[in-house]
Amino acid sequence: MNKKGHVLNAVLLSIGLGYILEPATELAAVPATLETMVMIAVPVTLGAMVPDIDTAFGKHRKTLHNLPLLLAFFVFPLHFGNLEFVWIGVLTHYVLDMAGSRRGIALFYPLSSTEYDLPTGVPVSSRYATIVTVLVTGVELILAAAIVFDVPRWGLEVGRQAIGM
Ligand SMILES: [Zn+2]
């Protein structure tokens, strides 16, 4: 996808994630939800811009489109206490490139230059690129909601059974 697509993906994803993490069930809770959306949207959008910096140096869809870079952004906040949520932007960039466009990315670069792709997506220049971006974002939000809402419940069930409750 092009820069416009990645920004659209990051902003829509952040709006959805903000609602999933801080759902407003009444009017008084709306400011907290909006604040969560902004808190997530800024670092996620910045993160979504990072991979395509490799159009300027290195090898595009390789140098800054790989799992080691994603891991680095994931552990950075755990160690240094800042750049939280940037990894989500990097991850969603990878997902959109793999699921939304025709060319894959070199997940294991620099160990391997093989590009991995999903059998979905349209050419970056396609007039359907925007709708595909929105669809990919929707699937990401369904998965995120499943993780946020179902995994803790499932963990609780397993925990309960483990201690025989
Ligand atoms: Zn890219």
TrEMBL record:
Transmembrane portions of the chain: 38-57, 69-90, 128-151
UniProt signal peptide: none
A GO term for molecular function: hydrolase activity
Keyword Repeat applies: no
Any Pfam family matching the protein: YdjM
Keyword Transmembrane helix found: yes
Keywords associated with the record: Hydrolase, Membrane, Transmembrane, Transmembrane helix
Protein name: Metal-dependent hydrolase
